[in-house]
# Entry
Amino acid sequence: MRITGVHTAVVEANYDWTFVRIDAGEELSGLGECFTAPGLTGIVRDLAPLLIGEDPRDVDRLWSKLRWGASGAGSPGGIVYNAISGIEAALWDLVGKAYGVPIHRLLGGRFRDSVRIYADCHAGEALHSMDATMVPRPARWAQEPPEAIAAGTLRNPEHGRAYAKAAPDEFFTAEMYAARARQVVDELGFSALKFDLDVPTPYQQDTASGTLTRAEIGAMVELAAAVIEAVGPEVDVAFDCHWRYQVADAQRLAHELEPLGLLWLEDPVPPENAAALRRVTESTTTPIATGENGYLRHGFREAFETGAISIAAPDFQKTGGLLEARRIADFADTHYISLAPHCIASPIGTVASAHVAAAIPNFLALEWHGMSVPFWEDLAVGFDGPVISGGRIQVPEAPGLGVELNLDVAREYARENEPFFDE
Ligand code: MG
# Structure
């Protein structure tokens, strides 16, 4: 069995869903998904010659070959691993099909038949679609204001401390958050939700400093409390801060949130300083989560070993692949830390993540970030029923990934000036 082709396609959704297809002859292929990044498909194309002619069943050796092939471009982490992660996942799909077993069986078998999903929720209409540099763009499926499209920007393209916020004239109210939370729980049946907490408030003073006024913290706690009260005691709720605050401000916020019993508070401070994060984590009983910027097990070592985080949130389309995700989970488990994998993927990447989530003991909940994309479910074929049902994903039993890409839908939203596989 030999690899004969490596192809990419990009679907323009709320993010650029970037797919890798690996062929082993005419009859056998595997599909993987990468986390969006500038120049991503070019990296996959540059790595492809390292794979052609190789035996796809040697997944870990090929992963290592790609890793060392890119060593001069930064072996500890970075965009090259977004590419490698999609390639590695495609290899597992291919190998699973070749052996006739689902991916989770290749990762050690499963602890659970279905995987708990948490819904990433947004109030209002913001955050339709973001390009690879996290700048808002007109959603291909939505009617956007003509003047915004003509200007080439939507709402607020300005980057603050982290990526762009919603328009400063659009303030989410506690009532909006509570209504959305109730809708997601009542209509879709989720038992875990996440909302952004770093949203503009009328009290916002300065987006560059990473500081919070007492009034801002009060407004944030009011939003969080409204969600918690709306969903009742049987639904868990997390809140995300997107790396925005200084240690002292994050400590004050986390402290004020303590009575609410959050599932976690995510990325209250920037991600690259584990010692700073540890100061936040040790100061509060609010569980602190981070990890979507972490690459490889090495990228989590300091945080695990020093007690900097309560919950690890690696992104399996980015962190180094499905087997590396399993290794990170095992490493976390030696420190009694659970995983709540970050995921902004299409059904392809989300189901790949669900295979890992099924195969690790220390799993908490997997993210679903596709609520604002009307064709998210339509992109999946070959799955038995909806991919997400009642806030869970049934772990597929079919060989490989257990879901295929709906090529007609993918083609409809394919990004211009990008290859669409080998068409
Ligand atoms: Mg996050």
Observations:
- Confidence is low (pLDDT under 50) at residues 152-167.
- The chain has 13 helices and 14 strands.
- The two ends are 24 Å apart (CA to CA).
- The pocket of magnesium ion is lined by residues 240, 242, 266-267, 292, 342 (CB under 6 Å).
